[in-house]
Structures
1.
Amino acid sequence: MGINSQVDLEQASLKKDKRREEGLSYWQLVWRKFKKDRAALVAGIVLIIFYLTMVIFTEFFAPYQLENKFIRYINAPPQKIRFVDSEGKFHWRPFVYGLRQEVDRETFSRVYKEDTTKVYPIRFFVRGDSYKWLGIFPSDLHLIGTDAGGTVFLFGTDRQGRDLLSRIMYGGRISLTIGLVGVSLSLCFGSVLGIVSGFYGGVVDNIIQRTIEFLTSFPAIPMWMALAAALPPDWSSIKIYFGITIILSIIGWGGLARQIRGKVLALREEEYILAARTMGASDADIIFTHLFPNCLSHIIVSATLAIPGMILGETSLSFLGLGIKPPMTSWGVLLQEGQNIRTVVQAPWLLIPVFFVIVTVLCFNFLGDGLRDSADPYSRL
Amino acid sequence: MTKAVDPMVELHNVKVHFPVTQGVIRRVIGHVKAVDGVTFSIWPGETLGLVGESGCGKTTLGRVILQLIEPTDGRVYYRTSSLGSRNGGKIDLSLLEGEDLKIIRREIAAIFQDPNSSLNPRMTVADIVGEPMRIHGMPRKERREKAVELLEMVGMSSSCLNRYPHEFSGGQRQRIGIARALALRPRLIICDEPVSALDVSIQAQVLNLMADLQEKLGLTYLFISHNLAVVQYISDRVAVMYLGQIVEVSEAAQLYQQPLHPYTEALLSAAPVSDPDHEKQRILLEGNVPSPMNPPAGCYFHPRCQYAKDVCSSASPKLRDVANGHLVACHRAEELELKGLPIEEEY
């Protein structure tokens, strides 16, 4: 070994010492443990993809706008993506065939067949309908599109001729954010009351807990329905959106508050809290410096596991016609449009939003489980 | 033995009775008499050991002095010049509020038993040791420098500052706890079983550290423990507690060789002696410790005492000075000849 590698070794061990001086913080430990849960990791990645494509960059990823109606293609089935054409030739660029309407001889209903004479290659980064990203930046760039005159309905169309994939993405924007906004509301309210309840005990605790029990004793869906029906019908879509969010979080905060209270009750007796009192720490000091950071992991886990409940709640309400109003769309609204037997038989692709709901709920559950298991990194399991 | 100095802490007939409630309307059906009439003093610069079995009230007593629990009766006095020299600097701790209380809290610190739960796992060592200083308004840079100083005083290097408690062993965590206790330059430290959770060899290290610090910084310790050997090693005077009352107080050596209370004798007979030729004559006490809700009449120890006479079940003995500062609460203290530990040979 030459002198150089000796110096390198020293450098490496010095660097290692420097790193050793900084201990692994709580969050670094959590991340280390979290990485071992494959399901949670995958769920996290899927959710990141969902949120990127459907919430932040919706206009870019969706081939069409929300209300683009193609009256010539009502109730069209999903167009198959092909690489090999009818003559057996392989194309590097995937393509779809055009659609041609025909009347079925027996049922006399409209049926779509592939027109192999019209080949529409799928192009990426096309210029399509213009939009304003985040309401500020104008653009017309779309990820997927095709030549003029062609259509790329990867999930088919609905009975007004609107592309379902695009509508699922725009609907996802609402469905995915309602969960987050609702849970944030529950969090703020619930964690404050939970900490106060657990820390002070006594009469305050009693009142808060009885209120929570009162609220949670109502069956969720009927209560949401009643409250949603009470929203004034002339409210704009945005107002309805926030109204629904508040309604969903009314029951949500109670459960969270109860869990936080339990955690605070356990933490209250720890010796470091006692030590803090000995030093003369005020109540506020103890709550913010000691109790809250130690509850934070619990709060995050509870919040993550509460989000699917909210998403399902909104989906149910909208499915029943009591939630989000058109022109705003959510997955529940989309499912409502597929709410009859004729749809199930003749246009079953309109039920695709169900899978998105299922996947989202599953992912949040896996993520929440993973977080919960890694939230206590001090146990050697 | 009278001393020329005034005691730092004086307890007069301190009682802590916790009410026991039953039913929805919280009817009080009795009291747990955790501390039942305790009177003693702590002199500046000494280490007073407080021994007793679990549940005798010694931890509660420590918390009363720390002002974490309010006594149901009795007074706790503390002498200091920080709040002026009114009344000879003698302050009734229970009357303190607000700013005054905060000032006094700087002077009385605590070391706790469990090194695992006495440090907040989410805070770095720098934050933990600096917390008392932060609460009392020291700016961040000063806190950091002082933290380095404190850690070096307890024998730990400054590389610990950015680490977390879970990266240290029990003994090291206890040292961090000691550093935290020293942060505001206290005069009195209440040590609640500080070495009970440590291995024996580490215990010795920590005890030696505490003795060194006492000499260097002029500290006064109230050392609460159930371990007789440890208390013997570190204390100047020892107080023995039973069922919420002090039964004997004396100089450490004298207590161990010539106990005057039957309970102390029984405790000492059970203590292991490191002489393989020593024949152990254990005094087995009959019965169990009575419930603190229902202490016996007269002397609390009489149902289990082998020397009990009629007077013991009717009259409560007072803690009195029978020989040169040796205090006992026993009616028969003068007549009994009790066995202590053999004098250990110095190696």
Note: The first strand of chain A starts at residue 82 and ends at 84.
2.
Amino acid sequence: MEKFRETLNETWHFYRRTLTLVAKGSKLYYAWCFSLLAIIVVGFLFYLKQHDVGLIATNMNDQVSWGLYIANFTYLVGTAAAAVLLVIPSYVYHFKPIKEIVVLGELFAASSIVMAILFVMVDLGRLDRFWHMIPFIGLMNFPQSLLAWDVLALNGYLFLNLLIPIYLLVKFYYRKEPNWKFILPFILLSIPMAVAIHTVTAFLYNGLPARPFWNASILAPRFLASAFCSGPAIIIIIFQIIRKVSTSKIEIEDEALFKISELIAYAMFLNLFLLSAEIFKEYYSQTVHIASFKYLFEGLHGHKQLVPWIWAAMTMNVTAFIIFLIPQTRKRITTLNLGCLLIIIGVWIEKGPGFVIPGFVPDPLGEIVQYLPNLLELMVSFGIWATGLLIFTLLMKVAIPIETGKFTHTQYEKEVIVSRPY
Amino acid sequence: MRNRNHRRYTRREFLRNLSLTAVAGASLPILSSCSKEESEDFLQNHFREMTPEEKKRVIAKLEERYLQKYGRKFQISTQEAVPDTFWAYGLELSRCIGCRRCVYACVKENNHSRHDPQLQWIRVLRLKRGNLINLENSEHYYNPDLVPEKGFIYLPVQCQQCQEPPCVKVCPVHATWQEPDGIVVVDYNWCIGCRYCIAACPYKGRVFNWAEPNIPKEEINPSVHYLGNRPRMKCAVEKCTFCIQRVRQGRYPACVEACPTGTRKFGNLLDLNSEMRYIIDRKRVFRLKEDLGTEPKFYYFFEA
């Protein structure tokens, strides 16, 4: 009992100090957080309107029944899965420069998953019936429905990516050696789980014979390949920003960034290769199933809305691939960042709107209805992205000082920083 | 020292107030934008899990609600499948003239939303002669003064009542299922509006209430089935039920009755003397997109 009270006290103490840490910051920090909050509020107000009148407030329709929300969802599941590219080199191969930052990568994955889940929630017509999907409380169609699988996989992965970093950080906070016997199985489990969330998301589309554009078995590998481009690209940019603005001098070595960018080069090669394999199959065989590809790449019966987008994406991806392929450009920060930006945008177009929308055009009865998101969908999406960024910022505000040894249990505050516990 | 303590207190207060306001601020407007009906129905059980008493209560609630809304006394049936029935549909392509009377009859019978959104369960496609399977060149919105038009044939499509329905397979919450008489139905009160079934259906058999349905009071059909043509609600999916409210009482679906050319047939596959058994045995039948393995119970056929 005494021990329990002590633990409770300690937890409360930690929680309170964390809040204080989060509430204090530079002017830049405040400006950043409050502008994110402002975007969140605007997005939320737009969502309220959608919740009030129904999904008619969006540009989605019976022909194109999923739009910008599900496009963003698909992309974000990918970026979340990409944390595995940090987990493998650090925990399995003990590559030191990445080991220093792996916890940050896991928290990034957690923030991405939160955004992905939020995008599904705003896409639901009946948020009030969300509980129907909760296992044991509602009536989940498991294992038949891939959407049920996705709910389980995403939440499982979110749990892992909160448990692992928080456990390690709390241990650092108390300057204690983590109990590896306890946490290592979770870490190892997070590797197949990362692959699983994205595979399940791919299968969600893949298993629909009604939509030939998605019904290609190459889909899951393609998803993984593109995820291992976009996720790490975002991580590279974020780490540089952290290095610049963080007051507690976290060590993020260039070596780590270059290693990640090398992995991106391999992933991008695979992504482009798989895509070209699919394009070859469709264009050489010229069956009726080519319609969606034609709509995407060259326009169908005069409907060309997505054509400039996909070619922009292709150009960006190929350029980025070349940048990451050549060691000189890969290892120069300016070109490295250019490559990352190109990949972030290029992959977003390719596997966001460039993947979801053509699945619906033409529809199963041959009708062509074009879709562009409206202002409301854009604002709600911005709101969710801002939510993710804010969550990530606040997590970083606590995680980084713990990592660098600046924020520890009061008992150790005066001590000199000892070696890293792991 | 006192000063510092004081400052600390206000900061914590500020944080607590901020987070409380955030939570309340986020949930209150969402809750307040829920209608009275939505909050009443919030905990309603899945139709197949309801006890007979629960069903009775729900029906009473709906009757009261519809009376308020449409000023009519509704007959809401929950009649189960009639034993030894398994329904199938026949459509003789060589007879269809593309007049869309079936569409209008369906809209009226099944209480569709008339505008914003306008929903229909039957779509008639106009194809140039020489085409049938590739629907990419079909015209959905043909509007001539007179039908049939020279050089065209018409292909009506609606829910094909598949024996292996992809929509049922993908629904994450069991909001849609196949009844013992073969009809695929939706519990409109259980659907979460994810629209996965719309993506999965190869026949566009499902449509979505993008907003609260609009049905003129004077055009309402008060004779309804819980799983069929009762007025629906915003952001739930719906589909053709072979007029479940009619066929379980031994009547034809509205589209069959409305067709002026006798294109549309309907019958019980388990009854060896039924019209459908006759057609399958004697005519040349095919089903749409048979290659997808959905096993529709909707047979298109030609004379002889």
Note: The longest strand of chain B covers residues 87-92.
